[in-house]
Amino acid sequence: MLDFxxxxxxxxxxxxxxxxxxxxxxxxxxxxxxxxAIKYFDAAQAMDDRELDAxxxxxxxxxxxxxxxxxxxxxxxxxxxxxxxxxxxxxxxQIQQAAALLxxxxxxxxxxTAAHIAQAGGEKIQMHLQRLYGDKPQLAxxxxxxxxxxxxxxxxxxxxxxxxxxxxMSGADFTAIGKCLGLDAxxxxxxxxxxGREASDNTIARQQRLPLSQFLYRI
Length: 219
Ligand SMILES: Cc1cc2nc3c(=O)[nH]c(=O)nc-3n(C[C@H](O)[C@H](O)[C@H](O)COP(=O)(O)O)c2cc1C
Description:
Blueprint: H1 6-13, H2 23-34, H3 49-59, E1 71-75, H4 79-88, H5 93-97, E2 100-107, H6 110-113, H7 115-119, H8 123-133, H9 137-161, E3 165-169, H10 174-181, E4 187-196
Antiparallel strand pairs: 1-2, 2-4, 3-4
The chain binds flavin mononucleotide (FMN).
Flavin mononucleotide (FMN) binds at residues 36-37, 39, 92, 167-171, 191, 207.
InterPro entries: Nitroreductase, Nitroreductase-like
Pfam family, one: Nitroreductase
Keywords: Oxidoreductase
């Protein structure tokens, strides 16, 4: 149990006046405070593919190392695949209940083949990437993970803004799920994301956050 009151800390952390920050900041702050990792979804509520496409297109504005956009999204629509993935994710209820189940896949070697880099007159960049990542597969994977995590966060925020709730998930056997999805050695799952409407009887409490004083260091 953490030894602070979330509301007290939120007030203490956000004592800056409305005049000092833009209205846009407060809108975003509201969205950030509203987003929660939802464990129970309303299985009767579907999501239109066009809505999902709009969410994913917005999220693709995410930054990525060298703009390599390391992400691929697998939208798992097949009921059979969902059931298989549910079993590989400890039967967490979100997997079967959510309107959409996404696997965010990292393209770990995308630096070798990124056509858009080459098109952007990027021969020099390509050489630089070869020097940077050529003998450092772990660094290439780390960069893919960082970039895909940024993308994933934006998927959840865009979904929240569109009226959907979300849950990021890594509590699963990603190796087995990768096989189930037919991924090859250059691909790896960054995380699963479920999206949908929250179940009306979901009562999961808001998770607390540490106050600034416990994570901010000014040196
Ligand atoms: C990398 C990562 C993996 C997570 N895996 C799971 C998961 O497997 N199942 C789950 O219910 N929540 C999962 N979560 C959600 C966290 O439990 C949740 O974000 C955290 O408790 C804070 O709650 P909040 O997001 O509602 O504020 C994961 C979150 C992250 C960032």
